[in-house]
Design brief:
alpha/beta; 3 domains; 4-stranded mixed sheet; elongated; 6-stranded mixed sheet; 17 helices; 509 residues; Rossmann fold
Length: 509
């Protein structure tokens, strides 16, 4: 196969102006993306993360690439190439900032030299690696053909030849007052060596170094620039070659190589982000994916954003799991407040979105569905501009979602309709749940209304649990079990002496 992209298995493109999906904030995917893109702004990677895949083969294409990158030798080769290309771009940026033409030309020449070196080294390294990903195999073939072409061979030879020629240029300059004269080098002695030899005899053991180190910078002052112009007049042929080189090779960078350099950062950024979590013992896997089966499961999984924060703080991460078998479609999560219900819901959404990007997902094992869209319905602050109350706004937003969702969508609802009475929440929640059941979407519904957990065979009740001997302590484990929120309330009331009988005894005293 011919190489087209390391991200896409067929001709495809991503708009640079792609917008962040509306659910990113609710699922904390915006936090994840902000962290993993830090320091990589130049690559403009965000659009790649804003565009999920909707085809199983496209996801598998990325899985194969990632499995190759999980080999240290492959990752090292790609990382070295990426660093070389980064140095090249730094030189080109410097060219734009410098003021003197001769200096700009020399840095441009160095940028081309770094490019040629990076490509040649990468071709050599890839040639000795066992690659299984069709994308990497096609890239290796493309690079081998490119590196063997007359165009690249000529560019590399001309670049190195010109560097050698410039390195051989030697000159002498004489300073007298405000005048500087530049001459060809005629074998004059190196005065610095003579001075060092003269004072060497006065050295007596180790002494303090009083030399002042000048700050190194790439810029030139006007005197240095004029000296360089005079040197160019002494060596007109060499600097004429430099002029011709810079004019003739402005478009030296191969477009396909530049595209790979950008696209591969998609993988490198994510692998770098999850490495500390893997080092902390957390598992990641390549999920089995489908656009048909909604029998999903995940084992030992977790909220990626929260886990990243906890690992940095050296805190423990609680893993959870779930599964749905036909005809189950909806996980109804209830339980005590601050018990991990919202984290569980975010985790479910993150898993399906990361899977649709073709990336490894948190967990020891996972089978996930590739949705056409992901929708979230989280609590919002009242917006005075909408002229709607909180409950009305919730109804308005869920209506919009249900009108746009299909049977291939994923829906995350978190504490919806909590701003109204229990009776109204049950009435509205039941109506909404019935529509969700009719659509057949995969859904997590976090609610305080226990009755919603048993509306039919499509629903599965899950609960956030507490320590059996101390109901006030959360385990942050969410497990399959019938909703029994009142039992937790009774246990807590009993612990703190707030049951009906306990209160009566205290009042009687």
């Amino acid at each position: 196969m011919s190489f087209r992209s390391i991200l896409f298995d067929r001709d495809d493109s991503v708009e640079a102006s792609a917008q962040e999906p509306s659910f990113f904030g609710d699922l904390h995917l915006d936090q994840i993306l902000s962290s993993l893109l830090a320091g990589r702004e130049q690559y403009e990677l965000a659009p790649f993360f804003y565009r999920p895949l909707h085809d199983v083969e496209a996801v598998h294409y990325r899985h194969h690439v990632l499995r190759d990158l999980e080999q240290k030798a492959v990752l090292d080769a790609v990382s070295e190439f990426a660093r070389g290309m980064q140095r090249m771009r730094e030189h080109l940026v410097l060219v734009e900032k410098l003021h003197y033409r001769r200096q700009q030309q020399r840095w441009f020449l160095e940028a081309v030299a770094v490019y040629c070196g990076a490509v040649s080294s990468f071709v050599q390294q890839l040639g000795g690696l066992e690659l299984g990903a069709p994308g990497f195999v096609a890239l290796r073939d493309y690079l081998a053909t490119y590196a063997d072409s007359d165009g690249f061979a000529s560019l590399a030879a001309e670049t190195q030849g010109l560097k050698d020629e410039l390195a051989s240029v030697r000159y002498a300059f004489h300073i007298k007052g405000n005048h500087v004269r530049v001459d060809r080098y005629q074998g004059e002695p190196d005065m610095s060596e003579e001075i060092e030899q003269t004072f060497a005899k006065f050295r007596q053991g180790a002494v303090k170094d009083y030399r002042v180190r000048f700050r190194e910078h790439a810029g030139m002052n006007h005197v240095e620039a004029q000296i360089l112009d005079l040197v160019a007049k002494l060596h007109p042929e060499t600097f004429a070659e430099l002029d011709a080189f810079c004019a003739g090779h402005q478009r030296y960078l191969d477009e396909m190589i530049a595209q790979f350099d950008r696209e591969v950062q998609f993988y490198l950024a994510y692998l770098e982000y999850i490495e500390p979590l893997k080092s902390a013992g957390l598992a990641f896997c390549h999920p089995r994916v489908s656009t048909r089966s909604k029998e999903v499961h995940a084992a030992e999984t977790f909220d990626l954003a929260l886990a990243s924060k906890l690992v940095r703080e050296r805190a423990s991460v609680v893993c959870n799991g779930f599964y749905l078998t036909d005809p189950e479609r909806i996980l109804v999560v209830s339980g005590p407040n601050n018990g991990g219900k919202t984290t569980f819901a975010r985790m479910f959404g993150q898993l399906h979105y990361l899977a649709s990007l073709g990336l490894p997902v948190p967990g020891r094992d996972a089978r996930l569905f590739i949705p056409d869209r992901i929708f979230t319905h989280f609590e919002r602050e009242e917006d005075i501009e909408t002229l709607r109350g909180k409950f009305e706004d919730e109804l308005f937003r869920i209506r919009e979602i249900l009108e746009r969702a299909t049977g291939d969508s994923v829906l995350i609802m978190n504490e919806s309709f909590g701003s109204t009475t229990l009776r109204d929440a049950l009435l509205v929640g039941t109506e909404v749940m019935n529509q969700i059941i009719d659509l057949g979407v995969l859904c997590v519904f976090v609610t305080f209304v226990d009755e919603l957990a048993s509306l039919g065979e499509s629903t599965v009740s899950m609960m956030s649990t507490v320590v059996a001997k101390d109901p006030a302590v959360r385990t942050y484990k969410v497990v399959r079990k019938p909703a029994d929120g009142l039992a937790y309330a009774a246990a807590i009331a009993e612990k703190y002496g707030l049951t009906y009988d306990a209160l009566r005894r205290r009042i009687a005293r």
